[in-house]
Amino acid sequence: MTHDERESGRLWQRVRDRLATAVRGRLPDPPPDLQLLRVSCEVAPAALRPLLEARRLTEAILGEARPKPPDRAKSLRRRTLFGEAPERATEAVLVELWNHLAQQPGSRWVVVFDAVEQADEATLAALTQVVRRQGWLQLPLVLVFHGEPKEAAAELLLAVRTRDPAGVVRGEEPPSGEAQAIQWRTLPPEVLRVLRAGALIGPGFETRIVADLLSLEPLVVLELLQQATDLGLPVEDRGEGRFSLPTSALTALSTSLMPSLAQAWHRKLGRLLGARAGEEVAGAKPPRPPVPKPKPREKIPSAAQVAEIIDLSAEVVDLVDETGLAAQVASEMAAGTGFEDHGNSEAPAGTGEAAAAARGVSAGTGAGSGDSPQVSEETSAANSPGAPTWTVPGKGERSGPIDMSLGASSLAGLRAASPNVSPETGPNEQAEARPAGWSPARRKTIFAAPAAEPRAEEADPDGWGAPSRVVPTRLEDPLVDEARAAEHMRLAGEFDAAAQHLCEAARKAAEMGAPQAAAQHAHNALSLLATLPASATRRLLRVQALIELGRLQWQSAGYEFGFTLTQAQATLDMARAELGADAPVELAADLAQAIAGVCFDLGDPRSLGRALDELVAAGSMLQAAGDAIGAACLLNDQAAVLVRMGDPGRALQLLRQSRKVFDPHVNSDPVALRELAETEHLFARLPLHAQLRPGREAEGFEMGLEHARAAERAYRDLGEVRELGRVWETIGRLELRAGRTEAAKQRFDAAAEVQTQLGDLTGLAQTTEALSQVLALLGRDAEAVTLLRDSVVFNRDKGSPLGLQQNRRAFTELSERLAQRAEHAAGLQEVAILLSAGERELGALLQPPA
């Protein structure tokens, strides 16, 4: 037996033992009983590209057996004051899929990453995490290194060797080829044309992209590549319609291209890939969704009942909407979708939400006159040129009556695609479409449109040759195509378009839970723009990139990136300095919301005042621009700031107004359901921040719990795990104030688990501080000290002055309780040192306003 045969046998034995293995050289042919799920890392390198391809391959293999994802029709992704819940990290989703595949009967699958040293840093970091976590991945993982690994790739190889010194094996020697000696110009013109196009795309290229670029059929491209291999050219088939060329061949083919042709091809590639990413998808009017059969909702305390329990400095009365916001929402949606009022025709009067709206009653509250004024017939005043601007009620101010003439379906068509709803299952997957009233502002400030499922005919495209043991699939991904489009546009000299694609790639990477890739794309956009002469368009692109980076620094998932609130504020302030008075409304409002979110989490008086100012300005801009729904969605955000500022009266007014706008539509539109969930959560927090009337404290906490449970049900229905964690923390605090310590601990434990998984550092800091109080009450003092220390570390890492102030109060109480307990002195001393260091670092933010 030769050395290569021994190494090959050792490799495949490790695979059967489900061990992670690194191969230096070419991967030997697998035994017949093993199936390879193989991904090449050298094909069009881009952030997370190999992991995304692996995810699609795995889902294609699983087919109907794959885990059912959350209902995207319900899972809204709207940027709010509280942030936008990122999806789980890509590697976590992948490992879950791979483990599900490992449990399936039949073939034994092996995950193979080829040419790992050429992968991007985000992919290498993710694979390193998978290798280091023993027992996490249940499928064997094989990492093939063709060249010498450097930096992050070397760290990945070291992780394999550290986990098991025998985990690195020698593969087969690659075939030697003298590509530079080939007389390329003597090749058949059709073959040379295809090879030049492939070389332009990158070290690895897909037949479908080459076919699109050259306006050929994929099968024709495959036949020409077959002809190239017959001529002895060093073209390597990597399966699934992917091919690669050696570096010498790439150099020779690239230099044989005329610069003008190369530029034209780069420009066309950029536009093709941009269209694949959704850039050129035309909006279409969606079909009107059916109004669902209303589901009975439990009775929730009305706002009037809440006002009775809270000791308000000024009387809170029924709201009057002098701005005509509710009427403007109805008019905007009716005009935007082209539908007349279908409320009466599709929802019988006297039943469900539509009837409740017609009667002027909030169906979610069970209250009549206490919460809902009479229906106003003046629906067009808000759209007149002299319509009042957006205002937040001042202390002691009263607003005019809010118009309740929104039909039960007035928010229909708001989403970028209309859900198909059934009474049994609720909203299902929808087709890719946009309402006629869709706008960039709405997309950015309310939700991101979910990606449509690929059509059945696209799952196995014609013309893709694939080895029999590799599952073919279409490997398009918006994030990857944005990054590739940016590179080709840059090479074509279309620098503004390249920067725009990089900004979009940063946004999409952040939404996917890939902060490292998102930061890379944002910095690349800023670096590119810094090399170009200034212009109005480039200034706006720079603002967009800074907003994406600032939002990432504010709410990125994970602790290892070191982003702080102060960094986020500085980045967003740079964006504000760049923003001109003539900037698009949607961009200005997006920036205002991001700044408000950072200031809200900072939590000091100055920051809270600025947060409120930013939200009022954003609401005014959106309403003036005709985006009444975007403006209405800021009611909850303003109320949250007022609650934290200690002004429950004004907050209560805004919450009541938000409920009246969205409650009639909660069963017909997911956006309304999310807004109502946010409203109920804020109602639940009022008893924690407001002065309750003497003797009615217990009633106030129970009422808060009822609101919190209503929010919990809605967030479960929407599939928003991050917000569920925040609600559980609120329930825990209410249970604690009500004296039910064990119940509070259960909720805090659940919240901490979710926040740890999501990397919700701000939420985790609050929850661990509350858990510290609970454990102290339960007599578990050592654990209480440890958790308080953790909370201080989290708040210090995130740069939260509000969190450190809460930590200081908790530390004072705990240290007084444990003053006579010598065994806790060292732990308390450590907390004191960390807390003082954090307070010194934040300095001015902790000082009271002058």
Beta-strand level of the residues, as a percent range? under 5%
Rg from alpha-carbon coordinates: 29 Å
Q: Structural class of the helix and strand makeup?
A: mainly alpha
**Strand line-up in the sheet with most strands:** 2-3-4-1-5
Number of helices: 33
Q: Assign an overall shape.
A: globular
Tell me how many strands there are. Answer: 10
N- and C-termini, Cα separation: 83 Å
**Which stretches of 5+ consecutive residues score pLDDT under 50?**
71-79, 279-294, 313-322, 336-476
Fraction of residues in H or I helices = 40-55%
Biggest beta sheet summary: 5 strands, parallel
Mean pLDDT: 74
Structurally, how many domains make up the residues?
4
Biased composition (Polar residues): 371-383, 419-428
Organism: Nannocystis exedens
Region (Disordered): 277-300, 337-439, 451-470
Biased composition (Low complexity): 346-362, 405-418
Protein described:
This is Tetratricopeptide repeat-containing protein. Residues 371-383, 419-428 have a biased composition (Polar residues). The chain has 33 helices and ten strands. The termini are far apart. The radius of gyration is 29 Å and the shape is globular. By secondary structure, it is mostly helical. 54% of the residues lie in helices and 5% in strands. The chain has four domains: 3-170, Rossmann fold; 287-439 and 665-714, no CATH class; 442-450 and 474-603, Alpha Horseshoe (Serine Threonine Protein Phosphatase 5, Tetratricopeptide repeat), CATH 1.25.40; 720-850, Tetratricopeptide repeat domain (Serine Threonine Protein Phosphatase 5, Tetratricopeptide repeat).
